[in-house]
Design brief:
The complex is a heterodimer of chains A (87) and B (320). With 87 residues, chain A is mainly α. Chain A has 2 domains: 1-49; 51-87, no CATH class. In chain A, 66% of the residues lie in helices and 0% in strands. Chain A is built from 3 helices and no strands. In chain A, helix 1 (3-41) packs across helix 3 (60-73). Chain A is elongated and about 65 Å long. Chain A starts with a helix and ends in a 14-residue tail after the last helix. The model of chain A has no long low-confidence stretch (mean pLDDT 84). An 8-stranded mixed β-sheet of chain B has the order 3-4-2-5-1-6-7-8, with helices on both faces. Chain B has 320 residues and is an alpha/beta fold. Chain B is elongated, with a radius of gyration of 23 Å. Classes of the chains: A mainly alpha (87), B alpha/beta (320). The A-B interface holds A 23, 26-27, 29-30, 33-34, 36-37, 40-41, 44, 49-64, 83-86 and B 88, 91-92, 95, 98-99, 102-103, 107-111, 113-115, 117-119, 121-124, 127-128, 131, 163, 166-167, 170-171, 173-174, 177-178, 180-181, 184-185, 187-188, 199-200, 203-204, 207.
Chain lengths: 87, 320
């Protein structure tokens, strides 16, 4: 193996390692942000009043898919909430 | 002399486009709102009288049914009774229809259940009522010269008027949070292509715009005013002065205070004299505590107020 080839491989490996870590962090952050958003939308479920419930109704179908991703992430196969039947 | 002052203050009120009447329960808000609406309509203004009070006594005063849709009560005078539960169910039906147009039947079924559940939450009626009020307040090219709102007792109304502020803060928080999440998602998926606009952010922003236009109408426009009704007694004075403070905090102008059910002049007897002395104390206090606002004074009639004839006598006291 030539010197320049080795050098480029090492560079790629480092780049991959670094980028992998970066993407992992980014993903974790995105998940956390999304969970917080879901919590804000479904506050009544944890007993906190939410004055904009009525305004969120029109986006509920969108939230449904987010909710589905969330419970899968939490390791629950089927929707854990009886009233939300996303699957 | 009183009449002249009343007339001057009333003139300023009739120049507005939107008037809210509020005050403690039982002081005669509905009567005063009806009397002002009647006076304006007799002058040739096209007037809409809206009752948001769940007690809905407007029908009783005019001895005509006010309905959930606007209808003509008298020439130039239309009436409407907003019913919170009805507005909530109407709103829910609209949302369901919208949803059914945009999503697959399976999704619609799932969402429907959830929407019904959310509709039963406490407070939904208030927001729905506010939503209806919003469409009336923010309406451009309204066919009415003057809209008079007869509102529920003070606490409820002040909460209603603070709603744009409160809901706005909530929507902002939700939008910011959603946007952050969407941006992170986009950064991961970044393939150089256009990022599609997020439907949730879009829906929230539509809401926000509407709230803003209501807030501007309530706060910034000089053509909206609040009228507080009270009677010369201790408890109404205290509650009204709190309400005036809350409205000022919300940036809403209090145009006038109506001092209702004042004892008529020129009666005799010990009982009358004693009441009159006490009333004079309270009236001085009212003059002092609400000195920055116009005051309209209405004397008690010998009978209670219902039916057009007696309402006209109140109107006459206000506008002469």
């Amino acid at each position: 193996m030539r010197w320049s080839e080795l050098r480029s491989n090492v560079r790629d490996a480092l780049h991959g390692l670094f980028y992998f870590r970066y993407e992992q962090d980014l993903r974790a952050e995105a998940i956390e942000l999304n969970d917080l958003f879901l919590l804000m939308c479904y506050m009544e479920m944890v007993g906190l009043p939410n004055p904009v419930t009525l305004y969120l109704l029109e986006v509920y179908p969108h939230l449904l898919s987010e909710f589905h991703l969330w419970h899968r992430r939490m390791g629950v196969d089927r929707s854990p909430v009886a009233n939300i039947r996303c699957c | 002399m009183l009449l002249a002052e009343n007339r001057k203050a009333a003139r300023r009120l009739l120049d507005k486009r939107i008037l809210f009447f509020g005050g403690k329960g039982g002081v005669g808000k509905t009567t005063c709102a009806a009397a002002v609406a009647l006076a304006a309509s007799r002058e040739g203004q096209r007037v809409l009288l809206v009752s948001t009070d769940p007690a809905h006594s407007t029908s009783d005063i005019f001895e005509q049914r006010f309905t959930r849709e606007e209808r003509e009560i008298l020439p130039n005078l239309h009436g409407l009774e907003i019913d919170a539960d009805f507005e909530a169910s109407r709103y829910i039906a609209e949302v369901k229809e919208q949803v059914s147009k945009m999503f697959s039947p399976a999704m619609v079924g799932a969402a429907s259940r959830q929407i019904d559940l959310a509709a039963a939450m406490p407070g939904v009626g208030d927001v729905a009522l506010f939503d209806r009020l919003t469409t009336i307040v923010a309406a451009r090219n309204s066919v009415y010269d003057l809209v008079v709102f007869d509102t529920a007792p003070t606490g409820h109304t002040v909460r209603l008027l603070q709603m744009p502020e409160m809901l706005g803060t909530w929507i902002d928080a939700l939008t910011a949070q959603r946007r952050r999440a969407v941006e992170r998602d986009a950064a991961i998926r970044d393939d150089g292509g256009e990022v599609e606009p997020d439907p949730i952010v879009a829906a929230l922003e539509r809401r926000r715009d509407r709230l803003d236009s209501v807030r501007r109408r309530l706060v910034e426009h000089r053509d909206t005013s609040f009228v507080l009704v009270l009677i010369p007694e201790r408890l109404p004075i205290e509650e009204t002065s709190r309400a005036a403070g809350a409205l000022a905090d919300a940036g809403i102008e209090v145009g006038a205070v109506i001092v209702n059910r004042v004892l008529p002049d020129g009666l005799g007897g010990e009982f009358y004299a004693a009441r009159r002395r006490q009333e004079d104390v309270y009236r001085r206090e009212i003059d002092h505590r609400f000195k920055t606002m116009d005051r309209i004074v209405i004397a008690q009639l010998e009978s209670d107020v219902y039916g057009l004839k007696r309402l006209e006598r109140i109107s006459a006291q206000i506008l002469g």
